[in-house]
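Field reference: sequence -> structure
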Amino acid sequence: MKQRLKQNRFAIIAFALIGVLGIVDYTLVPVALNNTLDQIISMLLIVPPIFLLIGLFDAWVPRQTVIALMGNDSGVRGMALAFLLGAFSAGPIIAAFPLALVMIKKGARYANVMFFLMVWSSLKLPIVFFQITQLGFSFAMLINTIMFVVFIAGALLSEKVFNDDDYQRFEEKAANEG
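Structure field:
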């Protein structure tokens, strides 16, 4: 019983907060429940196709290919591929983490995976095009160039922060999750 409560603590907290909301202003409860349902439906439309694509990537792309293209000896080519995968991606950032997990599991260099996640988060082409329309070409390019340089430096620096034991744990966790 205690284990079940621990596993469902976020749902219990959410329902308790909706109960408190009902006491404060009962007219907001249907709005909150409707928003929750809308979010669940949105996630159900996004998550299954993402997991299908990640499963296909995991099944169809051999480990040796990932190591050759994005492994420790991939150099600039690995960073370029990480950039392309992140920039031409679709979907929310939460979709990138399972793909990053598969990349680590298949032997991708940690800096390349970090760079991929950073690019996916804010240098995707739709975001860049939106920035150009709202901020102007020059300012958007300045922002994105600075982010690009910071992302490369951050990915390389993050790789230096961890030691071999940390990488071993990352890879073990990735293997256990997949």
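Note: The longest helix spans residues 28-60.
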